[in-house]
Each structure stands twice: as structure tokens, then as C-alpha cells.
Amino acid sequence: MEAIVSFEEWFEVISTLDSSEARWDVDDRISCLPPTVVADYLRRLFLDAPVLCRGITSARLCHMIWFFNGVCSSYWHEVRSKDVPIEMQISTVLALGNFYRDFLDHYPLGDDFDASEAETAVYMMWDMDCLEGAAIFPGEEHLVNPIFEVLGTALRCKSFGCQRSALHGLGHQEPYHPERVHAEIDWVLSQEGRLHPLLISYAHDARTGMIQ
User: Fold this and answer.
1) Which residues span the domain enclosing 69?
2) Is 212 a member of any domain?
3) Residues whose CB is less than 8 angstroms from the CB of residue 206 and which lie 6 or more positions away in sequence, other chains included
4) Which position among 53, 125, 145, 191 has the lowest Cβ density within 10 Å, counted as fewest Cβ atoms?
5) What is the pLDDT of residue 134?
């Protein structure tokens, strides 16, 4: 039986992806890790990103996010599987809030729509089909509060990119959790100067679930 790749080996691969093709062509030892290992590695990445990802280029950050958050790896489906204890699922999701607050909020994503490859990837984190559904599907109710905690953390960040990402995620949740979504968005709209000016109209769209 082939040994499981170490966290360091894993991170070296996912942080140096240079194209969309590379995201799909990673070795099976990276894309087919046991679910508990996936949860552990993602949590470590999110918590230690300020050090681990220091100096990462916008392109590589983009590809890394598309890989770990999307269907290239389906990592979040693995995290949400019955093989992962509920407490571990919750801690992994909550660590995503640290990734927003401690790393992405300080990364030069740009202050406009699609300002960089990384900004677009951060924006699309809640449209990659592997995490947002956890707040919708029966049997995963234990992840609803953690997901909204992450979205609230991202919304309270200062950067355009994190705020836009949060509004995107909240907009997708509006049909299923309207009261919670409205409360989050109404709060940020009521705080003068808190929301980036370019996002005010988008926030109103997200409040109705009419987002792209």
C-alpha cells in the first residue's frame, strides 16, 4: 500500500499549480486522500496560510483555491462524508473563516470586479459546488451555523474580494435561509463605510438571492 503524502508534500503540489489543466492532472495520491486526512490538511492550510502562502502569486493562489474548493478534488464532499467525525467537519469549515480573515483579507486581491485571477477565485468559492450545498441538504444541518459564521467573518473583512465572496455565498443561501441572510446583509448595509462602495448594489441583489 502506497504511503499517504505528507502535509508538506501535499501543500507543495497544490500551491504550485500553474494552469487549469494542472488542477485536473494532479497525482491520485493528492486527489484521492482519505477523508479525515483531507479535513486535517485543509484545516492546517487555512489556519497557517499567512505563513504557508506568503509570497504566493495571484495565479497560483487562484489555481490552489479552484483545486481545493471545487470539483477538481471534491475535497469538501470528502470532508462532509460520514467517514469524518462531525466535530472535525465543523472545525474544518470554521477554519475557512481564518483563511478569509487572517490571509485573504490582507492579500492584494484587487479592489474591483475580477481585478485579479485570485480575486475571481475567491469570489467563486461559494459557486464551486462542494461546500455551499452543506447548508441546504438534509443530514448536514450541523454545518449550517459554521457556514454562516464563515460568511459573516468574510463579510466583516475590509477587502473588496472577501466582502464580494461573502455576499456571493449569502446570495446563494437566501432561498433557503432568508432570515439569516437578510440579517447579515442588513447589518453590513447599516454600517456606514463598512461595505466597499462598489458592492452596495450587489449586496441588495444578494439580499433577494438574485446574484451571479
Assistant:
1) 7-207
2) no
3) 167, 168, 170, 171, 174, 181, 185
4) 191
5) 80
